[in-house]
Amino acid sequence: DGGITQSPKYLFRKEGQNVTLSCEQNLNHDAMYWYRQDPGQGLRLIYYSQIVNDFQKGDIAEGYSVSREKKESFPLTVTSAQKNPTAFYLCASSRSTDTQYFGPGTRLTVL
Amino acid sequence: AQKITQTQPGMFVQEKEAVTLDCTYDTSDQSYGLFWYKQPSSGEMIFLIYQGSYDEQNATEGRYSLNFQKARKSANLVISASQLGDSAMYFCAMREVQTGANNLFFGTGTRLTVIP
After folding, report:
1. Cβ–Cβ contact A107 with B under 8 A
2. Are strands B64-69 and B19-21 parallel, antiparallel or unpaired?
3. Which residues does A2 contact at the CB level (< 8 Å), separation at least 6?
4. pLDDT band at B99 (very low <50, low <70, confident <90, very high)
5. Cα(B116)–Cα(B83) distance, rounded to whole angstroms?
6. In this complex, is the C-beta atom of A13 within 8 Å of any C-beta atom belonging to chain B?
7. CA gap A34, B3 in Å, rounded
8. Do A98 and B108 touch (CB under 8 A)?
9. Pairing state between β B104-106 and B4-5
């Protein structure tokens, strides 16, 4: 089955810790994206990558970092610099400028 | 300024009836794309329908249709014959092609509840 997987589904972090959210796709898509969703809000773009070894900041990149070493993988690290990291994180992928398809999401809670 | 505005925080519809979810957008680009996604309580975002700014016909996908009125900058989603499984959050989103990236701008969503 082709699709996008995100792990873990739920993640708890202590203040001051870095955590990494996984996103993998086997759709052979070139582009991948990370969004953040807060309660009652739409999605906001954190980072995106259009090709391997290249990525750009989105609207709310501060406190986050990414890497794109493989076409299939686009992990997101939430660093201790992110002051309010509790949110729902969604990863998406697409063929260049085509429709974006989303993974099931990771819910991050800071304790 | 908000690029996507969804003015209906919540909507109710009787099962088997049709419902329209409103979406207005703001862009100065001539080339753009409009999307609707469904988000059930489980959280994943499910792509429903797409309309390109140059498409002359309104997009349709099964029970979903997009009422595209370019002059009014509106892209309303129409769901026909509502089912209980349609209860979810619905998000309108826009892509501005001119930026060269495929980034989406999302509205704040409408929660649809289908009543048996």
Report:
1. yes
2. unpaired
3. A26, A27
4. low
5. 9
6. no
7. 19
8. no
9. unpaired
Q: Residue A1's pLDDT is what?
A: 62
Q: What's the gap in Å between the CA of A19 and the closest CA on chain B? A: 21
How close B32 comes to chain A (CA, Å)? 11
DSSP B101: S
pLDDT computed for residue B49 by the predictor: 97
**pLDDT by residue (tens digit) across B2-13?**
799 999 999 999
Paired residues of A94 in beta bridges: A31
CB within 8 Å: A88 and B43: yes
Contact (CB, 8 A) for B6 and B107: yes
* Per-residue pLDDT at A48: 94
Per-residue pLDDT tens digits for A38-67? 988 889 999 999 999 999 999 999 999 999
In angstroms, the CA A32 to CA A30 distance is: 7
Query: In the Cβ-directed half-sphere of B46, how many Cα atoms lie within 13 Å?
Result: 13
Interface residue A60 vs chain B (CB under 8 A): no
- Considering only CB atoms, A45 lies closest to which of B35, B46, B103, namely B103
Task: Name the phi and psi angles at B84, rounded to 5.
Answer: -60, -35
Q: Which residue has the tokens 């329908």?
A: B49
